[in-house]
Each structure stands twice: as structure tokens, then as C-alpha cells.
Amino acid sequence: MRGLLVGRMQPFHLGHLQVIKNILDILEEVIIVIGSSQLSHTTNDPFTAGERVMMVTKALAENGIRASRYYIIPVQDIECNSLWVAHMEMLTPPFEHVYSGNPLVQRLFTEKGYDVTEPPLFNRKIYSGTEVRRRMLNDEEWESLIPESVVKVIGEIDGISRIKQLARKEVSEV
Ligand code: NAD
Fold it and tell me: Residue 122 burial (CB < 10 Å; 0-12/13-18/19+)?
């Protein structure tokens, strides 16, 4: 049995990791979709799809999860919500279960007959992409919210300087 989890992973944090571990406690394989793969270089979506693939790959390796148990697939957004599930089906291996806390994602998959589960949230106040990015911008401690290997990826790509520069650009455009 194969499950699917979709998220923007901007960046990949400990909440995402815990959901993946829980899915793999139940199912043999998980498809991890990197959503909005066309977006990068904004304060809301600072990281490219390739960088996010690197974050997820390294975090799962760090946690001893074998590569044969997951697929990481970047998927671009499309204009038509009603065609989005078919768009996903075209790009991913077949799957039976969908895991998402996002109401739109839940609705679209349920309408197409998928079994949709809302995974429990782990410390959502801090394990959230919005909170990680806020802390990065404000020179607050963010490293404990994400896997160590993801901290290294963000260092390698000079992510903090990128997000801060983007924030200056967005302020200057207002
Ligand atoms: P996200 O990264 O915020 O979250 C992904 C999932 O991770 C959540 O649904 C939740 O189940 C889990 N999660 C997050 N924090 C957690 C925590 N602390 N504890 C436990 N679980 C946690 O991503 P998202 O916004 O839900 O991503 C949806 C993606 O689907 C977006 O990229 C969106 O653009 C895309 N989408 C596209 C279309 C379209 O193209 N028409 C339609 C619908 C959705």
C-alpha cells in the first residue's frame, strides 16, 4: 500500500518528518509531493524545488529511512483545481491513501474517491514553515525546528542571506 503526502516544504521541518514516519509505520511506501514546485525566491517560498528535494532526501537519510520506501516528486501548481488530482496522478506512482491537513487538498482528493486522512499536528505553533521563515528573518533561533541535515542544506545554499535579501526587495516594492 502506498500513501501520498503533499506539502510546499518551505522549508522541510520536524512536523513534516513526523508525519512521514507515522505514515511509514502503517504503509510500505510514501510519495512525498513537493507542491508549488515552480515557486522560489520569495519570502513565502524562498527555496527551489531542487533545494527542497535535497532537504527531504537528506532528512530521511539522517533518520534511517531507506530510499526504497519513498518517492520525492516535485509538482507545479495548475490553474484548474478540478484537474489537479489528475495532474498529480499523471506524475506520481499509483497510491491509495492521501494524508493532508489542507482543506482544499482534502476536498479535491475526496471528490475523486480517495481515502483521505488528516494527520495529527505536532506542535503546530512552532513546527510550521511560516514560523521557521519568520524566525529566519528576525534572527531568532530556527535550527531546532528542522532536521539537522536541513540546517546544513540551508547553510550550503546560503538560505538565510537569500530570505533576508528577498524581504528587503519586497519592502522596497511596496
Ligand atoms: P505544508 O507544507 O504547509 O503542509 C503539508 C502537510 O504537512 C500538511 O497538510 C500537514 O498534513 C503536514 N504538516 C505540516 N505541519 C505539520 C505539523 N506541525 N505537524 C504535523 N503535520 C504537519 O503544505 P500545504 O500548503 O498543505 O501544501 C499543499 C500544496 O498543494 C501547495 O503547494 C498547493 O499549492 C498545492 N495545491 C495545488 C493546487 C493546484 O495547483 N490547483 C490545488 C491544491 C493544492
Answer: middle
